[in-house]
């Protein structure tokens, strides 16, 4: 019985932590020398097409800018890299079924106050999962050099500070994959 309780606690903690984390991947052109890039600018034409609020766009762009500057880049009118973003979201429905039967001393019913019992506990939750793509485009060649992608649960739009923290977490986790030689 202790083993089952311990296992259920571990599973719940894993599920909670996996919901909170950002799953990240990246891809890049192996022919590109990423040390050549020192300056960046945002690709306004592409960013304008992103279907999220202007406030969220600015939050994402500020986080990307802060990360690139921390990596030694400079924002420029004549950049080496153009930064573009793209987002997707989808609603997830999670169903948790906990059917149980057996000896439960705390179960009231069945064969008396202590005894055999059966029951079920169902829980349905809805959440929104978002994906943020960050593209780094070679400004001279107009070719994609690097792309990072992060997927995870989105923060509620009712709490602005949580939303800003979640966006920053997405960007930080994605940009940790750049430059690819650091992997």
TrEMBL record:
<keyword id="KW-0732">Signal</keyword>
<feature type="signal peptide">
    <location>
        <begin position="1"/>
        <end position="22"/>
    </location>
</feature>
<protein>
    <submittedName>
        <fullName>DUF4136 domain-containing protein</fullName>
    </submittedName>
</protein>
<feature type="domain" description="DUF4136">
    <location>
        <begin position="24"/>
        <end position="180"/>
    </location>
</feature>
<dbReference type="InterPro" id="IPR025411">
    <property type="entry name" value="DUF4136"/>
</dbReference>
<dbReference type="Pfam" id="PF13590">
    <property type="entry name" value="DUF4136"/>
</dbReference>
């Amino acid at each position: 019985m202790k083993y089952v309780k311990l296992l259920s606690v571990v599973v719940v903690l894993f599920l909670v932590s996996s919901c909170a984390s950002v799953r990240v991947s990246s891809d890049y052109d192996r022919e590109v020398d990423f040390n050549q890039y020192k300056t960046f600018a945002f690709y306004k034409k592409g960013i304008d097409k992103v279907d999220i609020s202007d406030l969220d766009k600015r939050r994402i762009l500020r986080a990307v800018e802060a990360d690139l500057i921390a990596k030694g880049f400079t924002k420029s009118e004549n950049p080496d890299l153009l930064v573009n973003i793209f987002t997707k979201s989808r609603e997830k429905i999670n169903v948790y079924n906990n059917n149980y039967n057996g000896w439960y001393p705390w179960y009231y019913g069945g064969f008396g106050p202590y005894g055999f019992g059966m029951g079920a506990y169902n829980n349905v939750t809805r959440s929104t999962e978002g994906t943020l793509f960050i593209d780094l485009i070679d400004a001279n060649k107009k070719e994609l050099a690097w792309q990072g992608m992060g997927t995870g649960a989105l923060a509620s739009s009712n709490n602005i500070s949580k939303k800003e923290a979640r966006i920053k977490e997405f960007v930080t986790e994605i940009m940790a994959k750049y430059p690819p030689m650091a992997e």
